[in-house]
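Contributing new complexes? Match this layout with pyridoxal-5'-phosphate.
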Amino acid sequence: MTAQPNSTEARDMAYHLHSYTNPRKLEREGPLIIDRGEGIHVFDNSGKRYIEGMAGLWSVAVGFGEKRLVEAARSQMARLPYYHTFSQKSHGPVADLAEKLVGMAPVPMSKVYFANSGSEANDTAIKLVWYRSNALGKPEKKKIISRIKGYHGVTALSASLTGLPNNHRSFDLPFPNILHTTCPHYRTGAEPGQDELAFSRCCAEELEALILEEGPETIAAFIGEPVMGAGGVIVPPEGYWAAIQDVLRKYDILLIADEVICGFGRTGNMFGSETFGMRPDIMTLSKQLSSSYQPIAALMINDNVYEPIANEADRIGALGHGFTASGHPVAAAVSLENLAIIEEKDLVGNVRRLAPHFLGRLNALERHPLAVEARGVGLIGALELEAADGAAAGATGARVGAILQRNGLICRNIGDSIAFCPPMIITAAEIDEMFDIVEASLEQLG
Ligand code: PLP
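Output block (do not edit by hand):
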């Protein structure tokens, strides 16, 4: 692409190192500059309209241009634009949000800690688990089990939890105390003839074998997303979380539910933990917490986690952890208003009501000759495609992603899977519009 001199594109290409982007490809092709958003749509700087089929990055639950969130930010900005939560300081919005989240929790939780990203929330969760083990006089209990294809972020510690090679390769990760167990993808993991329940038992047996091999007394926690998102939208098979939790209970291992994508309605209940019968000790939250209008994340911990940590911090003098923007007042005020909108508009009910239609249209895509599998739950799903004639892994997904974008739909290609996660305000007609574009685009693929 030859960008106009001094255009946004040209300056972005010259100065901006992008996330999750091949820098050389960016230098050749230039960026797509998104200029504004309204409802389920965003518009680029030429005025072209796109359906945001991924709600940004699985996050803009209430859609773009929500004036109530603009007003919540403006009025908090005018009253108290910043304050911190170190050294016994606090403010109204963060206290209100902590109370609100504890009240919403699907299992008893006692405290909320605030961070700025899902990565920081997961990083903090692991640090608190280690702190707790030391507090309990079990310094050997430090290993964390995560899963192949799980996604938990990109800080050095959360990237170690992430079970995707791209997040480790050339970064000298993962850290040694982080182990990865089986990915619960039924289609690729099950033996021929094995039903979902049997496959789930098999995943739990593999987890137990890893625990026994490492020594149960060395394992502190297991972390998992209720539904794997960035690993390709992998919905757990029947009985999976029940079988996993049986093993964790047997060996006194904490469960961390990474609800960064599933939290606040995505799977048809307020939390993915409810949809899949999980009873976590720690929950990490972000994205739909503020609909990403402000950067914020939270982790909720139960008494079993909080009490030893509080005792240890009391003994030492203070908890040696905190971000300058932990519990930022503007982010907290926006989150409170965002949660009010989700509740008042019954967006979780909307997900539940629209899920059969969304999943019906998604599953119908399996008729395409290149389709391998459609999978989803609530308003999150993916279509996996076969690599077309000798194409490298991921090339077909990238091609489809580019065609969709040309046709006015932004989705996320994950390898050869195309992920869908539209804003939760979407209507049935808009779902049809979205999948009509997908069908037409797949025809153009040939
Ligand atoms: N956990 C999950 C399940 C995620 O999907 C993500 C991001 O996509 C993260 C953690 C990391 O969040 P962030 O990008 O805000 O650091």
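Reviewers usually confirm one structural detail per submission. For this one: The two ends are 26 Å apart (CA to CA).
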